Amino acid sequence: MNNTGTEIVFLIEEDPEGGYTAKALGESIFTQADDIASLKEMLRDAVRCHFPDEADRPKVIRLHIVRDEVIAS
What we know:
Blueprint: E1 7-14, E2 20-24, E3 30-33, H1 36-50, E4 60-66
Parallel strand pairs: 1-4
Antiparallel strand pairs: 1-2, 2-3
């Protein structure tokens, strides 16, 4: 698959046990970390490992952060 000039999208969710999880949409990439800053570094590393050939590697990593929030009515 050639992703030159494209982006990869990750679904970011808060882990009920603490920290965050990230799952790529359309690729088999999953990682987790204690905070968003660490998660970003883990994502960069995961994408580099999954796409070892820089020509095939997505140029942009987009984070879609999903947060459950409950408010009283």
